[in-house]
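For the sake of transparency, this paper describes our internal protein records without simplification. The record that follows is passed on verbatim for readers who wish to inspect the format:
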Amino acid sequence: MTGTLYGLGVGPGDPELLTLKAARLLASVPVVAFPEPMSGDSLARRIAKPHFRPGIEEIPLRMSCDPAQRDDDGYDQGASIVAGHLEAGRDVAVLCEGDPFFYGSFAYLFARLGGRFPVSVVPGVASVMACSAALDHPLTARDDALVVIPAPRPEADIERLLEAAEAAAIMKIGRHLPKVVGVLNRLGLADCARYIERAAQPGQRILAIGEVERAPYFSMILVHKRGKAWM
């Protein structure tokens, strides 16, 4: 018998935003794995740590320090380590910030291990939902179409996608802030946009678009063309 691979969404930052199912599994599985940058702490581990059972074996999976890039070598090595535990019959919970299948790092481990071992994915609170709640800004209403746009996309793509929907969540702002703000201004949407960084984390900040000088990777701009979804 092999172990089961659990992909656990741990939410955007607040340990209380874990689901009851994720917390229950963390209190019972023998092994937990989590992505960890080459330097610094693992955000996923910091979120989930209050729910770890005593004596749980922790496996840091070293990945590229650039969260915008997929690190194939790191995921190959991580998959090999996790596979060793699963082959020995130990269940492994792999932590993923936000939701495992919404731009989640777990998807790359799933691609490598999903055909070999039993897998169970536990959804988590995605950053889009956390940002909407923190901003007191409903994402959509009625029959609105919502588009999720990664800021690293080309400027022309961002403009085209914004034009096609009533509401948008622009993610992973970082160094792409000037490009995104330029598109919003050109489309006349700057007054309908709301900026937040590190939602549900200790360093959460909400700023007007014109006040943002530099944006971290964990930042987002929500846009609704009616200004308020319920209007």
User: Anything to note?
Assistant: The two ends are 56 Å apart (CA to CA).
